[in-house]
Q: What sequence folds into this?
DNA sequence: GCCAACGTTGGC
DNA sequence: GCCAACGTTGGC
């Protein structure tokens, strides 16, 4: 089983939205590195749900993968903000997965606290802050889940 | 709102 | 294949 961190701007889609919906598809990833990470995901993998561009930024809860990568059809929808004219039926280019709500932290585990923790210094989050889908070590996942009360 | 870091595009 | 120009991300 692998562990991941996925970013969402809470104004667009928050952990509270996922708690309400229970399951959502993760459309709109338009970065190859993030996509390549998403394609690796297996059913049952665990996800840190990160609020970016938020006050405060940080991990807001937990989710799990319930459907492995499949074509992101929004890339072929000209009315979508995720439209990509280079995506074709034969070569969809972009993929998405489905994730299911697992837990909402009582308090967001802030990026400042993550940066303060020496055990988390190797996290991609701390070293390449732009990547929106990143691998997380099992240990790192455990530390953050615990900080969030899970 | 600023801007550093990074990714993508496209001319050559 | 290089790299300048440009666009985006996301913390501050």
A:
């Amino acid at each position: 089983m692998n562990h991941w961190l996925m970013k969402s701007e809470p104004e667009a889609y928050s952990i509270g939205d996922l708690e309400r919906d229970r399951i959502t598809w993760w459309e709109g990833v338009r970065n190859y590195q993030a996509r390549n990470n998403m394609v690796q995901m297996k059913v049952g993998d665990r996800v840190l749900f990160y609020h970016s561009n938020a006050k405060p930024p940080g991990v807001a809860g937990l989710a799990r993968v319930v459907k492995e990568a499949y074509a992101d059809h929004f890339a072929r929808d000209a009315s979508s903000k995720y439209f990509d004219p280079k995506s074709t039926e034969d070569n969809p280019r972009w993929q998405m997965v489905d994730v299911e709500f697992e837990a909402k932290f009582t308090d967001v585990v802030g990026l400042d606290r993550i940066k303060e923790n020496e055990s988390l210094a190797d996290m991609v989050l701390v070293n390449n802050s732009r990547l929106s889908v990143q691998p997380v070590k099992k240990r790192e996942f455990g530390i953050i889940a615990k900080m969030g009360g899970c």
